[in-house]
Amino acid sequence: MKKFNERNNKRRGNCSIIFWQGKWLIAAREGFVPGRIILADLDMNTMSASTIRSLKIPIELGASSGVVDPRLFIFQDKLFCSYTYEIDWHTETFQCLAEINRDGVVLSNRIFPRLHHPYEKNWQFFEHQGELLIEYSVSPEHVVLDLDLNVRARLSGFSWQYGDARCSVPPVLHDGCYIALCHSYLPLECQWDDRRYSVGFYTFEARAPFKIINYPTSFLLSPRATDKPVNYPSCQSVFPGALIPDQNGWVMSYGYFDTWSCVVRLDNLTTSIDAGDGKKIRWLDDEEFNIK
User: Fold this and answer.
1) Separation between Cα atoms, residue 86 and residue 99, nearest integer Å
2) What angle do CA 115, 207, 129 make, to 5 degrees?
3) Beta strand 260-266 pairing with 279-280
4) 3-state SS class at 108
């Protein structure tokens, strides 16, 4: 763990992308412990990121705290970034929501109180009939909250063979229902943080109480053990950050081994792929971030 942390400042992963005001943007986690969030312009043709700027979140960070795991989304033509605020690394976390502009300036910021766990994260925000709602959990119950944290819906969720499912990306309204991704992990017989992640997709109704329609029976995205970077722990991680429909299918962004930000184009959401088949983002400001 110590050896890995000594190199953490040159890693940008767990990315989220969005198309806003005619341009693509990417947000990513920079560093491991502590972490911060960067924002950049994204060229989808060359898969390169330029004009990298730090997201100016008004939170005082300590040596073992950080802001991580951004998800970008649009609400009422405004740009938002949800993220996780970690205190004392993996000991205490809060879900947060910020309205931002293209320069990375935070126009408003909200730290939500914890509801049930000392480690709150992976809340996903989505628009429903002009209102911003929160998909709080998908397993074992599908729970939807409003911004005052009142329960709007609570129904049975789903389970699958790859571990406890967690909400991964802002749900997308598409063809009359919401489409979203989940991630989970199973333990491996290795060392520190020994687990293998899987990503699946599911759908739920576009009206309250947001009943699950289809749930994953097999993974959509899974890591390759042979892609593990040098000096990285045994965890085989893939962490989705965005799912966006386009004219040819879907575009998904994700973090890979807490090291790379990747984008992959999908013809459909039913064919399983290796996470290593995605395109790694090239950071144009500093070649040291482009880890082989």
Assistant:
1) 19
2) 85
3) antiparallel
4) strand
DSSP-assigned letter for residue 228: P
Nearest to 169 by CA among 112, 221, 105, 247: 221
Reported pTM: 0.93
CATH no. of 2-285 = 2.115.10.20
CA dist 200 and 232 (Å) reads: 24
| Strand partners of residue 289 | none
The tokens for 196 are: 């293998």
Give 3-state DSSP helix, strand, coil % of the chain, rounded to 5: 5, 55, 40
**Dihedral angle over CA of 179, 82, 130, 134, nearest 10:** 70
Query: What does the pLDDT look like over 274-289, one tens digit per residue?
Result: 999 999 999 998 877 7
Name the one residue in this structure whose structure tokens are 């399983």.
Answer: 272
Of 272, 181, 271, the closest CA to residue 223 belongs to 272
Q: Which one, of 232, 183, 224, 197, lies nearest residue 11 by Cα?
A: 232
**pLDDT band at 61, cuts 50/70/90?**
confident
Amino acid at 124: Q
Q: Which two tokens stand for residue 248?
A: 């040819």
3-state secondary structure of 5: helix
CA–CA dist 79, 89 (Å, integer): 28
The full length of the chain comes to 292
Report the distance separating Cα 63 and Cα 265, nearest Å: 37
